[in-house]
Write a structure and sequence with these properties.
By secondary structure, this protein is α/β, with parallel strands linked by helices. It has one domain (5-167): Rossmann fold (3-Layer(aba) Sandwich). Helices cover 42% and strands 19% of the residues. The protein has seven helices and seven strands. The chain has a seven-stranded parallel β-sheet with strand order 4-3-2-1-5-6-7, sandwiched between helices. β2, α2 (46-56) and β3 (61-66) form a beta-alpha-beta unit. The longest helix is centred in the first third of the chain and has 15 residues, at 19-33. It is globular and about 45 Å long.
Length: 172
């Protein structure tokens, strides 16, 4: 695997024919072109799109899956890590990363964002950059900044919003 790892979080329901899927694919290519290993939950939607993009640019990919789930992982994984349950998977996805890229998503993505921020907040892991693709989560982040001066500072140091697939290259 490459020296640096970026973990992606986002919807498993984004379809290959959607323009957003193509954007995530392009972002995966940009990440691979920067020499980073791309990690996702290993299934479909944005998890598949980012790994497919990374693979198309010759990048290394890793999928973290759950052994008891019936879904098969996507075909763009170089290495699969199977864990016993969802919480172990979330902790592994967070722990592996040097940075995170977040796409629009639902409650699972919200949990992943929250756990990553809380682990940094409690100093259980070092602070790491979190790149949000688009403004989907901006309202949530703005609300979290209202909690405390400390959390606001943590977010302002580590959270970045990008608006196109090439923007990630400015940070990586």
């Amino acid at each position: 695997m490459a020296n640096k790892i970026i973990t992606s979080f986002g919807s498993g329901f984004t379809k290959p024919e959607e323009p957003y899927y193509i954007e995530v694919f392009e972002l995966g290519k940009s990440i691979a072109e920067c020499g980073w290993t791309t990690v996702s939950g290993g299934y479909y939607g944005t998890m598949e799109a980012i790994l497919k993009g990374a693979k198309s640019a010759g990048g290394k990919t890793l999928g973290v899956t759950v052994s008891t789930w019936s879904n098969k992982p996507n075909e763009f994984i170089d290495e699969e890590v199977q864990l016993d349950n969802l919480m172990e998977r979330i902790v592994e996805l967070i722990g592996l990363a040097d940075a995170y890229i977040i796409f629009k998503g639902g409650t699972g993505t919200l949990v992943e964002i929250s756990v990553a921020l809380e682990l940094m907040n409690k100093k259980s892991i070092p602070e790491k950059p979190i790149y949000f693709y688009g403004d989907f989560w901006k309202g949530v982040i703005d609300i979290l900044k209202l909690d405390s001066v400390y959390l606001k500072g943590l977010i302002e140091r580590n959270v970045f919003f990008i608006s196109n697939p090439e923007d990630i290259k400015k940070y990586l």
